[in-house]
Amino acid sequence: MVSSYTEFTPPLMKTAPYKDPELPVEERIDDLLSRMTREEKIGQLGQVSMADYANQREIYLAGLKAGRWGSRILAETAWAGNNAEAALNVIELNEIQRVAVEESRLGIPLLYGRDVIYGHRTVFPIPHSQAASFNPELIEKAMTCVAAEASSEGVHWTFSPVLDLVRDPRWGRVIESYSEDPFLIASLGCAAIRGFQGTTPGAPQRLLACAKHFAGYGGEGGRDYDTAEWSENTLRNFILPPFEAVARSGIATMMTGFHDLGGTPVSSNRALLRDWLKDELGWEGFAVSDWGAIYDLIGHGVAKDERAATRLGFTAGIDLEMTAGFYERNLAPLIDEGEIPESWMDDAVSRILRAKFRAGLFERPFTDPGSASRTMRRPEHLALAAQLAEQSVVLLKNKRDILPLDPALRKIAVVGPYAQALREHLGSWCLDGRTSDVTSILDGLRKAAPDVEFLTADAAFSDAMINTARDAELTILCVGESHLRNGENKSIAELVLPPGQEELIAALGRLDLPLVVVDCSGRYLPSAASEACADAIVHAGGLGTEAGGAIARILLGHANPSGKLPVTVPRSSGQIPIYYNRKTVGKAASFKDRYRGYEDELLKPLYPFGYGLSYTTFELGEARLSASTMTSGEEVTASATLTNCGPCRGAETVQLYISDPVASTTRPGRELKGFRRVELDPGASVEVSFKISPSDLRFYTANGTWEAEPGEFRIGIGADSTVPLPLTLTLCPVAPAPQSTDELGS
Ligand code: NOJ
Question: Which atom of ligand 1 is least distant from the CA of 117?
């Protein structure tokens, strides 16, 4: 059978060296660059959305023939995740690509980008929940499936992972971000990138990845797009390290944020992008602006018009402009008038071509229209999505071991706004998941426990819910904030459940019957009513298409919860910002117990970073160090024995924390430096160990260097971030190099 895919496949012309896949990528880039006109080069630096393609088709295809664009974003609006989007159409994508590769002068393929943030048809948990798994290997496998599904529909490039540091949970975009901890962000971000990109450049069924939002996004007061006021110390120690880690591990692209960073919008920040990321780190990928972020330089008030905005954005080091068309209109005159060196344009074009060559686009520009049906929702994708969903659940409270549900229970009420919800489990950056693929919590329970009678009630009427609860032996109240209240451009001023839900929890609590609250919010919202009335609190936010089954298995004890909080949960909005890796308060040492923090609130958070319960109990033996001193080039091992002392198999995430009590700058009270998720049978023990080397102790010093300062470090191993740090490790100074006889003599 001749498919349109094979008809579209061009003969592999080896007439020009850049078309020869056997040649090294750098040679292909040089050859192609040498053949390009100025207009063709500038064309590669622009991305277009091709909005209203059906009606504007001829205009777009003519533009492609002329080489006007290098990339197409497969989205209709800047905040695609919040809107229902048109489904992908492989035939249309192939038609467009055919014009680029067969009818443009040099046949450079178009790069198709889409926000495939945490799932495609199989939707995995939102990244904020994924992070609770503390399981990079599983996240890597999950993102491999996402890449296979998205690429089967013609996507080449995803705008994921999100490496933003979460310090204000009122910010709607926390749901896309992993954590408040840079070590965890870097570990999970690198894992996601391995999943998306694979290790062999250009392998089929992979995507180019894009780390975002470079750098320091997550605005003041939790407001999206707003100014960020990070100090140099915070920027270097907390915000940039995950970006550095992914740059060093070969991420293909990065996206700059919309925000102002201390007086310079990041999309015009040359020091961070061109000087640090590209020149100092030697990162070879390309930078893309966020949607219209170069246009926004006018809104920020640092550029008076589009020409000035182009100059600032391009000088900063943004290679590809998402959607505004400023580069197309303004780069040539800026180069002619000497405001932008021509070599910078060539560098930017080379970076984009490098990504296209490495992705194998010149060899495989088209997508087989038959491949989507063979790839979507394969059994192994569903199994991984279910596994990651289970591992993303955090059990926050379990009074009198009310969970797992007693198998003797015969009548259980499952009520609340999330009892039968479907779309809500897909989270707010989900373009391609289908509501019809989602299992609700109620259906998940009915399927997993067919002998139990699950009663339910209309989600809108609390009277009906209360009556239903009265008829049952136990109530599962499913609450949460939906995708309509978080995500891009959707933030909240008070960190609380949506209106009415606290009252509902309290009303059911007053019945004095067993109550389990399942909170499906995409973030961790404190709930005073749940703390006061619920016997158990389960957090299960945005778990994806497999949500219902995963939640049911956890509640019934067919799976044991193992998730750990990737952020600190405040008691109230007034405690924000509150994060475990805060600096030590100077006065706390002399004031001791008299240092209270607030008169009207506790200093302690509601739940600490790294916390999460299990149905079994684990004991960690005393932590040990293989040596109490370390010099440059050496490694020391910290270890402890973990035992499962409880009744069932379970997983514990063992966490290594280190503090640097005396340094040339103030330092966090403690920092996560390692973690291991370990599964054990009841009664089993295992030795968990972490290697520590001087490089783990580095930070941004008072001298502006990134290094470890000799001295004492405190170390602890535990099951959450409140663990004591009983061990001392001394980092010895590096002995001065012996002077050469010449120097001695001179
Ligand atoms: C705006 C968002 O900030 C960004 O994360 C997303 O990738 C782009 N729009 C493209 O949709």
Answer: 7
